[in-house]
Amino acid sequence: MALDTRLLDGMVLFAEVVNAGSFTLAAERCGHSTSYISKEISALEARLGVRLLHRTTRSLTLTPDGQAYFNTCEQIIQDASDTRDLLQGRQQQVSNSLRLSCPVTFGIAYLRPLLHELLPTCGPYCTSLCSSILR
Question: Which candidate among 80, 87, 110, 116 keeps its CA 20 to 30 Å from the CA of 70?
Fold first, then answer.
């Protein structure tokens, strides 16, 4: 079976339409026009070969297939978001060594408060610091 590179296209927009309850509100939240959102959802339904939404001029409801797809989309979007957050968190952690050399009195007076703030952000990388400064 060939890899479908468009497999995930439209999932976020579809979930946003469902969560917003309307194409107009979803378009405002996403920064797109209502017609763009509508066309993307129609294209998604065509690719999947199922109707996801019952549309009328006054309401928008999920079909049974739409509900199943929405549940799966929500999980995929959450997993992708969690993965992004994990990777961004790793980029913000200290990943190199920092060696400081200073007189003990300066270290106690000025560096100790700073190091106490820095330690929680270091993760597993801060393994050895001068214990006499941190006491």
Answer: 87
SS3 10: coil
Amino acid at 102: C
The two tokens of residue 83 are 């993965």
pLDDT digits (tens, 9 = 90+) for 50-108: 999 999 888 899 999 999 999 999 999 999 999 998 888 766 655 666 666 777 787 77
Report the amino acid identity of residue 84: R
| Paired tokens of 21 | 């309850």
Instruction: List, in sequence order, every beta strand (DSSP E) within the chain.
Output: 53-55, 60-62
Q: State yes or no: pLDDT of 110 exceeds 90.
A: no
Closest CA to 16 of 27, 8, 5, 7: 27
Residue 88 identity: Q
